[in-house]
Structure formats: structure tokens, C-alpha cells
Model the fold of this input.
Amino acid sequence: MAQTRWPQFAKYFENWERYWEFANAEVTAGRLERAGFAEILTSLEDAPTPLDGRETFKLFISHVNLQPFLKRLPEDLQDAFVGPLVEQAAKDSPPFTLDYWRLNMQGKKPKAACF
Done:
């Protein structure tokens, strides 16, 4: 069993299953090809996203990034979960910037033959 850095939250994440995947450009290109697309171009683009200060950052990550996690916690523990992440983001350079990557994809679906 993996150790947790925040044991006070451990019981809320028992049986946690990750349900999302962030496919890279190569995996995405293969999926597009298997779906019948041609002239496929895929790439990852660094897209750091700065947010305007502590409160904006906290609201954004609470409603977007951390929503699946916060749903598992009682309301009285949610600030204790989010707070250290906001404090760490304040120390980042630049502060309150999310490390996003944009997946670009392009392809053409061949026209069906008409008979």
C-alpha cells in the first residue's frame, strides 16, 4: 500500500480509480488513424496558464482541476486539502501558473465512395 503525505485524507480516497487520461501526440495520432482519418498531424504545445492571484487560482483549481477530489471530501476538509496547493503555487515562478499542455490534432476523414 502506498504511503500518503496527507494521512487525514486517506480514508476518503480508498478505492480511488483514475478515470481520465491525457494521451500524448503519438497515441492520439494512432487513434485518429484507426478511426479512418488521413493526413494526420498531432503535437503537444506548452501552454502555461497564469491566473490572477491567490483567490482566482484557488477558485479555478477547486472548480476545475480538483473537483473529483473535493467531491469525496466533507466540506469542512476541503480548504485543508486545497490550501497547501495554493501555498505551493504562490512560491512557483511565476506564481499561480498552471502547467498546461495543449494537444493539437488535425486530420481528414476520407469521403465515402458514392455508387
Q: What stands out?
A: The chain has a mean pLDDT of 92.
